[in-house]
Each structure stands twice: as structure tokens, then as C-alpha cells.
Amino acid sequence: MEGGDGGVAVAGQGVQGSGAAAATVRELLQDECYSDFLNEDFDVKTYTSQSIHQAVIAEQLAKLAQGISQLDKELHLQVVARHEDLLAQATGIETLEGVLQMMQTRIAALQGAVDRMKAKIVEPYNKIVARTAQLARLQVACDLLRRIVRILYLSQRLQGQLQGGSREITKAAQSLNELGNTI
């Protein structure tokens, strides 16, 4: 809650209200019974064992109940005094929840659009990758086929030259050299 005058800080939290509220809070803070609860290193087990050893449990319980009752009354007075502010804040929270829900709806719609675009892009991309790999394999196969055709041509020419006798021997040697370079 914001606004008001005469605020008193309690354990790091702002308690604000009228002069009576501040007096009530000061009164509770100055009471030794409640000061133990405000310490940073408050331990329930230690406090309980000390209370049992001192045998003043009923007195302390009554004092704590009285303090809780005072705090409840003060809280009720603060809520009544700040009723309009609290309602305005609650309305503001509802408005923010509406805006948040609208933003979540828009984010979901945007995510759906991104997913659709992704599907439109990923499928063609995957096809292109597959076709590119297929084209690369076809190029290798075509290159091998060209070499095979060349080897067949050279081997047929070499056979013809070998049948021609000694006058074709130089041409046969040249064909054999080409055949060796092709392989």
C-alpha cells in the first residue's frame, strides 16, 4: 500500500497508516515478548525450548494472542482506510491479467504462423538438399560412364591396331598409353 503518513518500518517491510497505527506498531516493537520475533536469526526451536525452561508458556501464549489480535485489528483498520486504493489495485491487476492473456494469445498465433512458415520453408529445403545429393551422384555416374565408354573405344581401337600387324604397332602403343591414362 502506498501513501499515508507516519509510516514505521517493521522487519524491512513498510507499515504505514495513521498516528494510532504507528503507535500500536511502536508499542508492539518495544515489547520484549515480540522483539525476539523480529531478529534476523530467530529460531522457533530455540525460542520454544527457552519458553519451556522458563515455565511461562501460558503467559507468553496470552501475550502473543493479544499481539495477534492487535495486529488483526490494525490490519482491518488499514484495509478499511485504504479500501478504494486496494480496489483500484485489484482492478489494475485484472486489467493486467487481461492484457497478459491477450499477449499470450497473440504469441500463440505468432508461433503458429512461424510453424507454418517453417513447414513451407523446411520441406522445399529438404527437397533441394535431396535433389542436390542426387545430382552429385548422377554426375559421378556420368563421369564413370564417360570413362567406361572411352575405355571401350580405346580397347576396340587397340584390338583393331593389333590385328593390323607390325605397321600399326606405333599406333597400338599410343592407344595403349591413352588407355593407361584413362584408367
UniProtKB/TrEMBL annotation:
Domain Conserved oligomeric Golgi complex subunit 5 N-terminal: 35-158
Highest taxon in the source lineage: Eukaryota
Pfam families: COG5_N (PF10392)
Entry GO CC: Golgi transport complex
GO biological process, one term: intra-Golgi vesicle-mediated transport
Full protein name: Component of oligomeric golgi complex 5
